[in-house]
Amino acid sequence: MSNDFGSGPGPQQSYPIFRAPGLLVGLVAVLFGIHLARSFMDPQADFEFLLTFALFPARYGATADGAQFVFPGGMYADFWSPVTYAFLHGGWMHLIFNSVWLLAFGTPVARRLGTMRFLFFYLACGVIAGIVYAGAQAGSLAALVGASGAISGVVAGAALFVFEKQGPLARFGFDYGAEELRAVPRRPAHKALGSGPALMFTAVWLGLTLLTGLLGLGAVGETANIAWEAHLGGFIAGILLFPRFDPGAESDE
Asked: Which of 27, 61, 86, 174 is the most buried (most CB within 10 A)?
């Protein structure tokens, strides 16, 4: 496989942008499968399912009026909820929106990191996003659902290299394989996010996230919420964690 970004003789293997890695296709399939299964549940069963697997801040402390609730799953769910909430969604549009972002920005990140690194990076960002939400909404009965926090981390990781001059978005190159992507230098966050398209992209992403929270556009019912705190927490986690998982080149600028 050529490492010269398409300049040079010899056959090259094509990696169209819409040919997502199997891990991402499988992950999206799992998300759709879970939501489809929930659509066949009666409302009470689905409510019990949410109580067990969504992330309720009130699970970890008393509500504002001092009430202490007991949730299904006990202490085991205390540990699995910060993971499992990211596999639940508030509706089909919520799921489709997240899936599009995951496939679009997860593809270059997954190819660069490889399967296991990407999986641990994705889950770690989701867990941190959940913890940030639970802390910011301490005692709340509004559940957190959705992969948005984990995907925010993936978006942050992508922003550290995809806009670089050799990167896929800067060159509109959709045929990058793992070796080509790992050869794109990853710059420090303050430099990568402080210039050009990456700055504009980050500002738009964070602006939409804050607008979602301020206008309450994330509300999907009395028991579920898509929280801007989780988006921000996941994004910051992605910025901090991506260099620790990244096997690719690092810029010396």
From this structure: 86
Whether CATH 3.30.70.920 fits 22-245: no
250 in helix, strand or coil? strand
Residue-wise pLDDT for 79-134, tens only, equals: 999 999 999 998 888 889 889 889 988 999 999 999 999 999 999 999 999 999 99
User: Where along the chain do its domains lie?
Assistant: 22-245
Residue in the block written with tokens 């496939």: 103
With left for phi above 0 and alpha for psi between -120 and 50, is residue 71 left, alpha or beta?
beta
Side-chain-facing half-sphere of 21: CA atoms under 13 Å: 21
DSSP-assigned states of every residue in 79-109: HHHHHHGGG--SSHHHHHHHHHHHHHHHHHH
Q: Quote the crossing angle between the two packed helices 92-113 and 148-159, to the nearest 10°.
A: 40
| Maximum distance among all Cα pairs of the chain, rounded to whole angstroms | 71
**How far, in Å, CA of 54 to CA of 152, rounded?**
18
Residue 191, classed as helix, strand or coil, is helix
Read off the pTM. 0.84
Strands (E), the chain: 143-144, 224-225
